[in-house]
Write a structure and sequence with these properties.
The protein is mostly helical and 361 residues long. The chain contains 12 helices and 2 strands; from the N terminus they run ααααβαααβααααα. The chain has a single domain, classed as Rhodopsin 7-helix transmembrane proteins (Rhopdopsin 7-helix transmembrane proteins, Up-down Bundle), CATH 1.20.1070. A two-stranded antiparallel sheet has the order 1-2. It is globular. It starts with a helix and ends with a helix. The relative contact order is 0.12. Keywords: Membrane, Transmembrane, Transmembrane helix. InterPro entries: GPCR_Rhodpsn_7TM.
Amino acid sequence: MQLSNTTEQEINTVEQEISVERRMTSHNMTWISYPSKSQPFTSQEEIEAIIASQNIISRLMHCYIAFFVPTGLTAGICILIIFIKNHLQNKRASLDLLLLHFTISNIIMIFLSFTVITRPDYLTTTHLACSILSFFFNFAYFNSQYVLVLTLLTLLLERFPPQTALCNATQRPILCVGLVVTCTFCLSLTEAVLVGTDNYQLEVHCQLDPLFAWPEYEMVKFTFGFGIPSLLQILFFTVLWAKEAPAGAPALQQHIRTHSAVYVTNVTIFICRLFYNVMILFRTTLKLQRSIGTTKNELVMNIAEIVLFCESCASLVVILCFHKPCKDEVLKVIQKCRRKTRANNHLEIPETAMTHQSGTQ
């Protein structure tokens, strides 16, 4: 009996050691690297493929920096000015506060996207600095996603108002935003841990979603950053289309037209982030297979990252152009500019006429 107990304990100890060793092996990401940085390219076809890949990434990066970044930042600054001005004039609305929070998150993402300026090369920094950049990127990423879900919920309860505590809670946007920020912080902190806790002093090639992160990093990001929010968005849209509105509520087309900024932004984010998250999952599959992939895989992942940043800029432009308070302010500015131009033209005509008359005399 004693011998059998000792044998069982030894077997359990060996199994525990094997499981720990496997776990440590799966979390040891020192072997991973970018295909363009690790493969010894010997054939002419491989060299031509990597040159073509780098040309595509470089052109996309230049287009993003030249067109999307200035447009997105300009739209974001205009939205901030309009919302702050309306807040000071006591024109406060819960929807405006949520969109203001969404705008700040997207502006942060645009500033963090400057890390792509080095492409087709990568930002070289320490493991610790890359983890910090990843934390702030994930904070803005999760924050914008969940604030938009909260905005959809607010519009849904506005159209189908139940007499519940949930409806009362959505009428207190500061409380809702605080809850979103708390959840976002916890998720971002979890992701920072899953980047890895070793080799903080080593220099690495850094992306905002680090290549050297553990496979669980991408799984958590897909689940909580895209999967769950997307299911909630689809549920809200289904209820909006399928459920009959109560008497006295505006027609569905009018409701969508009134809040078109929110709905167009939701569709834009879903499409762009779907592409990005599919590539994130594909990268996880390669990690689990202990493969670094090909140059083509690296190219598509870089394209997906730039598309994600383009979505942040496009969302701000959509809000500026379609959200009624922003659109009204933009139209007012355009009308003032036209009036000034017309007034200047009217002033120039008499001066020219007087000069012509004095010259003939």
